[in-house]
Amino acid sequence: MEASVPDMAIVEKKTEGNSLSSNSHKVVSLFCGAGGLDLGFTNAGFEVCYAADYDAAAIKTYNRNHPGNLGRVIDLLATSVEQLCDSIVESCGESPEISGIIGGPPCQGFSRGNVGRHAEDPRNQLALKYAAIVNSFYENFGLKFFVFENVPEIRAQKNKSFLEGLRKELSQNFNIYERELNASNYQVAQARRRLFIVGVCKSSGVSEFSFPPPSPLKEKVVGDVISDLPDPVYLTSKLVPESIPYHQNHWTSQPKSKRFETGVMPVGGRSFIQLDWTKPSRTVAYGNREIHVHPNGKRRLSIYEAMQLQGFPFKYVLEGNMSQQVKQVSNAVPPPVAEKIAQSIMEQVL
Known about the structure:
Layout: E1 26-30, H1 36-43, E2 47-53, H2 56-65, E3 71-73, H3 81-92, E4 98-103, H4 125-141, E5 145-150, H5 160-170, E6 174-182, E7 193-201, H6 222-226, E8 233-234, E9 251-252, H7 259-262, H8 303-310, H9 322-331, H10 335-348
Parallel strand pairs: 1-2, 1-4, 2-3, 4-5, 8-9
Antiparallel strand pairs: 5-7, 6-7
Helix pairs in contact: 1-10, 3-4, 4-5, 8-9
């Protein structure tokens, strides 16, 4: 049986409604996960008025870290576009002005990390559902833009017909712009390549969109963000969040392999990838027993260290058990990348 970290205690936020100002640029977040993309957009001046994901633990994380209890557990594949629109009106008020939709549909059907991936994976249909929602929101709420995030492998040759169909749907009412961005170019201590598609309403008069240029600052490496952290706590069946010093996510699994005694890791493979203090981290996308090895070679990274490699702020806390936290940090969009994209949209589109 999987050892777990008990659910984190939640300090309820006292809020009245969503506290959204009438002149703000409101966005709806689909497949919001733990909220990394949303955090970047709110930092850039947007206001999220609605957030949805099928993962209950991720929504618990979302509502802990974002005011207003906006996150809802919704299976978007089983929810009709009409039902979603009704839910938006219920949450955001009659005739809401929604500037944008942001989100990254689950990518397991395309991801290189999924050895059984194939274009017909049912989860891939969520990308087409996203496109249908975008077009409906354009008609119902005057949508001005959307942001779609996914793994670069969605552009692989075997996915060609699927991607062509997706582009066709997304471009019905929007001019679309695509760019593969590496998080390491935006002050994130991680090499993380992801495809971003930005759609700009054809009736907006905006004829071009430029993705944010790489940061002129020195590239961040692993040592910049985790070298000064205290040692984490090791996971046990009796571990409770309140007993974890420094940060509630600063825990890791007990090192069991003899490799951790020597600190010498095998070359190749996915299970014992050791990070280098002087380089950006490998992509934070962990499967079963694949959390990267700390640069000292004595243990695996803590969840909090992985959060730092993703660019989350200190105050952010992930909820759930071991596998749920690993999934959330692996699927998140690095907030600094999201913020740069949001700033570009704010400057060029709105």
